[in-house]
Structure formats: structure tokens, C-alpha cells
Amino acid sequence: MMREITCREAVREALREELQRDEDIFLIGEDIGFYGGTNKVTQGLWQEFGSERIMDTPISEAAIIGAALGAAAVGMRPVAEIMFIDFIGVCMDQIANQVAKLRYMTGGKVTIPLTIRAPGGAGRSAAAQHSQSLEAWLIHTPGLLVAMPSTPYDAKGLLKAAIREDNPVVFIENKMLYNTKGPVPEGEYVIPLGKADIKREGGDVTLVATSRMVYFALEAAAKLADEGIECEVVDPRTLVPLDKETILESVAKTGRLVVVHEAPERGGFGAELAAVVGNEGFDYLDAPIERVCSKNAPIPFSPRLERFITPQVEDIMAAVRTTVLG
Amino acid sequence: MTSIGSCCLLARGKGGLGRLTKEELVSLQKTMLQIRHFEQAVAKAFLAGQIPGFLHSSIGQEAVAVGVCASLREDDYVVSTHRGHGHVLAKGADLNEMMAEIYGKATGCCRGKGGSMHIADFNRGIVGANGIVGGGIPIANGVALAAKKRQRGQVVACFFGDGASNQGTFHEALNLASIWDLPVVFVAENNLYGMGTSQRRHQKVENIADRAAAYNIPGVVVDGNDVLAVREATLEACERARRGEGPTLLECKTYRHYGHFVGDPGAYREPGELEAWLKKDPLNLFRRYLEEQGIPASRLDELEAEAVEEVRLAVEFAYRSEEPLEETALEDVYVPTEAGRRAIL
Lengths: 326, 345
Ligand SMILES: Cc1ncc(C[n+]2csc(CCOP(=O)(O)OP(=O)(O)O)c2C)c(N)n1
Ligand SMILES: [Mg+2]
Hints:
The structure holds 2 protein chains of 2 kinds. By secondary structure, chain A is of the alpha/beta class.
């Protein structure tokens, strides 16, 4: 039996192994060291690697990303943590105008091996400024790679790839998944960026889901199997680059696509994917593409309202029935 | 007491400015007690699983909220933070509506959409708490700008923490307020920690007020556990602002008795630190002062009993209130103009 660890432990292991492997890697962020991290992801690393490599900062997100960018531009490999992805709003200039564009603007003179980790997602009644899914802001910005893993196995392997990658990667964790367990082998492995994973096979409809929604999609798929509908659940794992081949292959097989993400529907990753499949897989489709996303509203505080705004398993099941039964 | 430049003097309370009657003095204690018991009640309800999300307790910092707000007019404004229950209660927020909001109920002041970190009540000049550290500081300038343009003599008290004073927004906003002489009192509530990082580890200045020198505005340091000292220093800053002479950076030295959020054990504190600060509990200090002024202990006990009862009623109101209806989640994203209605579809 392979051991099972949580997403939190998987991310921490990836960080620890990479810190051990390469002296140029350092972590930078708010309360990641002495305090052990708001989500306890980095707990123990400060004791192990010291304050020169696990660097606590003031509450200054723009300064964090700027410092990480500058260090990366001259050859280091920083891993920055933004405590909640919502706070990238504070440093969006550094991310979108600086990190993403420096290489291009300098005609390729500079390489930015920078990883930015940030947890997103609703589910804790943390309200509108601590619950968002902001991947669309990032995938819309050429120059950034965007990873969004769901399982501990994927998180570990993808984070190692992100840290070794010579392009800036935003690595989006999910606060609701930190305690989620899954099998992770003891030894070293790396998952290449841009490789989707089929989390469940099925022939009737393709469910492409990201982050926590992978679990919701799997639950929906299990229930729909009882109704005789077989869903294939595809986790793209990285949104940029996107493994179009795996997704298109799946749609070629099933003829139907439902995209599930927690970010609001308008302008989201689902819109992008629908365009890709509508364009490159038009002939495969037997039904209109469905999107299951948050409603176009901020995330409210009240648990009942939060549940209402964000996608639920029943919403996924309803969308699947719509595509399959028409 | 006020100095322009890098040297900040400790403001002393109990002096001449705006002398208070005994009843007014007593009412300061009453508000501090309300905040104390409010915070205790929400922490208890949170730990009992009745309150969703997370909470930041202001226990230990009551004198800052009350001292500042006691020097404001009813039509003045406050801009608050994630640790804002005290600020908004002191500015006159309704206990029931506020409690219900923290419970996530439909009767809450923000209809259950904001919760603890986003309490606002524009009718009472409460422009809002904020979940983004440093997010409120620039907004205070805009409120002050409007007040100035309309010449109503209003001021804005803008609360923020020591941690927030390292955000770019702090520096940008102070500079702007300085060059435009905006009527803002920037209240740095220095409780010595930004989450688990002590002030020593996050900035090299000992006094945040020293940073006023960079903007050529007055920087004042005050004992944030002395409600009268806070009130006097704020009054002076407000008078200056109302005269059109611009902002003040007022640093209140204080301490939070609990962790960063309810449930945080605060393991990062120095040994003995909490104990030392508990000896300077603002409510105990002021109670002693009131007794010295001849207010009978029985009257002060009565005050406390009143506060406890008011908070109990608020908890009952919140607990009994209905949860919001699902469809209300799509309201308030936009004003329902033609465009606004279409935008949520
Ligand atoms: C932009 C941003 N960064 C980080 C956080 C997470 N956070 C919430 S409160 C806090 C500490 C704030 O410290 P301070 O300003 O001193 O206020 P205090 O909590 O002490 O009242 C942090 C880091 C946040 N909410 N917003
Ligand atoms: Mg603080």
C-alpha cells in the first residue's frame, strides 16, 4: 500500500526536497517562517533551513513579488507565497506588468524562474475578499504559467516541476483541500506542466474540472453511474499550458463536454475551454457544451449563500443530464 | 504634544482639552464594556460553532476605538479594519444588526453577505471594515476629500494596524492626504503584531508615528490603553483637520489580549508579555480612574451588568434571526439599473 498524505504535506515535501536540492531556491512570504504559515504549509521549514532561506516579510505583497522577481531575474529561484490568492490584487502590477512581461520586453534577455504559490477557493465563509478563484486573471496574462492541482500526488509533482521551470508559474492551491489525503510515493517524481490527468474513465460525457471541483465532479460521476451515465473526469492540472490533446481525445470519445470550475462563469477558464473545443473539436460534439461555475457574484459570507453561489455536486449532475438527455 | 518632524512626544490624557462631565466619563467606560462583552460573546459563539468564517478579537484595544470615536461628531466617518468590531460599535453601530451580521443572518447590517470583516453602516458614518490589510487607508482619503469639497467640517478617522503600515497603500495615502490637507486622522493601532510577526521583525522604526516626518504632517504617539489620552490626542488632530490644516498620524500603543484570530493560541508572543499587558487592561485602568473621580463602584458594576444584558439580547436576536434567502445572494452585486440587472444574468 502506498502511503497517504495530505495536500498540505505534499506541498511541504516538494518545497523541502527542492530546498535541499538547490541552494538558489528560497521561500518568501508573510508569516511563512517563524509562525509556520497561515495554512501551516511551510511549518517546520524555518527551523530546518533558517531565516535566510525561509524569509518572513512584512505585509507588503508588492514588495514580496518584486523582490522575488528581481532575485529570479538575476539567477535565483524564489518561491513566493501570497497568503490568500485574493491578495494578488495588491501586487497585480508586479505579477501582470512586471513578472509576466519582463522577458518579452527585453527581447528574451532575462529568464524568470519564479514560483508564486497562493491558495484560493470558497467554502469557509471567508467572504468576498478571502474566497475567490482568480485563475482567469492569470491565464489571461501571457508570460505566466498557471498550475491548479487537485490531489496531493499532483500537487507535489507539479510544484517540483514549477520550481524547476524557467518560466514564472503561479501555483494555485485550494484551502479546502489542504487536509485532503491521497497516495503519494516516497521517492522523487516530477509531473510535467501541461499534462492533464484522467481521474475517472467513462464513455458518455467528458467532465473537465479544476482544483476542488475535481472532487465534486468525481462525486457527481459516481452518482450518475447509478443512473447509467458514465462520466469521464479530466483534470487539466495546469491551465497554461493546457493539454488540449487529452481533452479533445476525451470529447472525441464521449461527444459531450461539461466544464466545472469554482470561479464565476463570465470570462472564466470554462469559456476558454469551450472556445477551444468548439473550434478544434466541433465535429465531435453531440450536444452544446455546458458550464458549471459560480454565479456571477462575489462570494458571500453566509454559508447558505456561499453554497448557493458556488457550484455544487447537484449542479454538475443536472448539467450532465442536460447534455446527455437533451 | 504634537510635533512636526521625526520627534514624537507621548500625548498625556486627563488634561485640559475638552473636559468631560462625570456622565460623559461613565459613558466611555460603558462603550468599552459593550465592546469587551461583545467580543467575548462572539468568541464564545464562534467556538460553539454558531458563527461561520473567522473572527479577529479587539479585546485589549477598546480604549483606542472608544477614545477615537468619542472625539468624533455624529456626522464624522470611520474607516475600519479586519479587527473592527470595537471601531464600529464605538461609532454607534446597532448591536443587534452587527451581531446578526456576524452570525450571517438576513437581519445583519450587511444582509449576511459581509460578516465580521466587512461590517459597514453608512448611515452612521461607518464606511466599512476591510479584509485587505491596508485596503481601507486610501478610501479614507476619498471620504475626506468629499467632506472637504462639501465644506461640512467633517473628519475621517482611519484605523489600521502596525502591520498595515508596511503596505504601499499606507505611504501613498499619507502623502496624498498631506499634500491635499485632507481632514483625516490616521489611527495606527499598534498592537505590536501583524499576525505572528512582531513589530520588531516587520519594521525598524519604533514609532510608526515617526513616519509622519516623511509626509511633513504631525506624528503623535499616545498610550492606547488610556482612553482619555487617546480622546484628547484625537480631538486635537480633529480640530486641526477641521481647521483645514490637514491630516495627523496618531499612533496608539496597545495590545491584543487574544491571538490574531479567535482560536490562534498566540505561541509567538514573548513570555510574560501578555501578563504585563493584562496589568494595563484599559477597562481596569479607567475603572480605577473613575473610582478616584468619585464614581461609586456599584454604579460601575451596574454599567457592566447593562453591557452584558445588551450583548445577551443581541446574541438572542442574532441567533433567532433567519438565514438569508438564497436568491438574495444575487442582489447587491449591482444597483438594479437596466445594465445592472442584465449583468448578473
Ligand atoms: C493584503 C493582505 N495581506 C495579508 C492579509 C492577511 N492578514 C490579515 S490580518 C493580518 C495582520 C494584520 O496586522 P495589523 O495590520 O498589525 O493588524 P492587527 O491584526 O494587528 O489588528 C494579515 C497578515 C490580508 N488580510 N490582506
Ligand atoms: Mg497589529
